[in-house]
UniProtKB/TrEMBL annotation:
This is PTHB1 N-terminal domain-containing protein. GO terms for biological process: cilium assembly. InterPro entries: PHTB1_N_dom, PTHB1. Coiled coil: none annotated. GO terms for cellular component: BBSome; membrane. Residues 1-204 form the PTHB1 N-terminal domain.
Length: 209
């Protein structure tokens, strides 16, 4: 018999939830940010649920956004700002939010908003090019990559994935400063950020092989 037991700490019903991120937003402990395909976003603080009577207090915010939530990330997206922010990816919009409170009432305040002219698929975050602030790389349905830093879109790069039918998972590895994509044809492809950034000096660049 195991000496370890599982104790149910918190139970919440989150209908149609499909993405989740964990990060420190308030009170020096981690919170959960959950998004759904219907556009609903929840911010949950499990640290408040110290007994079953206070479980409802653990949901700090529940809000409807105008479209399906594709991805969520929590990080310090602005250099010099100590507070972590929330990046929310919708099919044609990337929004950076700050969680603010007035007593026990929490709200999302928009810090930056980017319009995506194509249809987004997913995103990853990282200090691309050894930047001081965390940046965001969005992959669209055509496997193109868009990199955002704060209020600026740094570039938009078409990627040559001729054998892929649709985009796949994406992640950033700081060791090699590279963006790694898993294509639908079961191939892992790594792109150094320096190659992506210098492929062209314009907002839209040439295709990266």
């Amino acid at each position: 018999m195991s000496v370890f037991h599982v104790h149910e700490w918190l139970t919440l019903e989150l209908i149609d939830a499909n993405v989740c991120a964990v990060g420190e937003l308030i009170e020096k402990r981690d919170q959960l940010v959950v998004g759904s395909v219907t556009g609903r976003i929840w911010i949950i603080d499990p640290g408040r649920a110290n007994d079953t009577k206070k479980q409802l207090l653990s949901c700090l915010l529940e809000k409807d956004l105008p479209a399906a939530i594709l991805d969520i990330a929590i990080a310090n997206f602005i250099s010099g700002l100590e507070q972590n922010l929330i990046a929310v990816l919708l099919p044609q919009k990337l929004t950076i939010y700050r969680l603010i409170s007035d007593g026990e009432i929490y709200q999302l305040s928009t810090v930056y908003e980017h319009t995506i002219t194509t249809i987004a698929y997913n995103m990853c975050i990282g200090t691309f090019g050894r930047a001081s602030a965390v940046q965001i790389c969005v992959q669209d349905m055509a496997c193109s990559l868009m990199v955002f830093e704060g209020e600026n879109q740094l570039f938009h790069r078409p990627i040559n994935l001729t054998t892929a039918l649709h985009p796949g998972p994406i992640i950033y590895t700081p060791h090699s400063d590279s963006v790694i994509i898993a294509s639908s044809s079961a191939i892992l492809i790594s792109y150094r950020y320096s190659v992506l950034a210098t492929a062209s000096s314009g907002k839209s660049g040439k295709k990266v092989a």
